[in-house]
Amino acid sequence: MLSFTNISRCQTRILERPARGFIRNLHRGDIPVSWKRPQIGWTKLNFDGSCKGAAGEASIGGLFRNHKAEFLLGYAESIGTTTSTVAELAALRRGLELVLENGWSNVWLEGDSKSSVDIILKRQRVRSKEAQRQVSRINLIMPELENCVLTHVFREGNRAADKLASIGHQMQKPKIWRHIPPDDILWILQEDAKGSDLIVTLTYDH
């Protein structure tokens, strides 16, 4: 039987670091964003969903890297017509299924849709039955992991997953890359490994 305390413990750890970062940057217009490596012994999943329009043809993508920023596995697939929220959740759900298949137990999950991340972290209700199905699957898998962290990152720190999600639109069937990434994301992986910063401009209402 799944333990609710395991889910809560995972979510409490998730909320700590992003909250401090937000407070630190609250009054800054420009902030540097870069992809961050996981700790030794951890695997990091960056995931993303892509949807053409509010509800249109959708696809998902994601990739796993280790503490050396080495590419371990990537995935992309078209998932038919749905909403952007379902696409984001489906990308996370598929990534978590691959986590189990590959036996990774210490996993950092990161996506660029804050609303979708908040659905999991804050246990927000979703109206769509398909979104509910994705959330249920995610909540079943996360407690099975020894350690997990889920965070939001700006799109500039999630470019490789964003590109894979875009590639997913072209797929006739699901695709998985093991150890050797597609050529389209090689330059992004190289920049991420260097820790290259991109500047994000935030606009605040006063």
TrEMBL record:
Q: Which domain of life is it from?
A: Eukaryota
By its UniProt entry, which SUPFAM superfamilies does this protein fall under? Ribonuclease H-like
> In what residue span(s) does the RNase H type-1 domain sit?
39-170
Print the organism lineage. Answer: Eukaryota, Viridiplantae, Streptophyta, Embryophyta, Tracheophyta
Classification via Gene3D superfamilies? Ribonuclease H-like superfamily/Ribonuclease H (3.30.420.10)
One Pfam family name is RVT_3
Please provide, alphabetically and separated by semicolons, the GO molecular function terms listed in this UniProt record: nucleic acid binding; RNA-DNA hybrid ribonuclease activity
Q: What is this protein called?
A: RNase H type-1 domain-containing protein
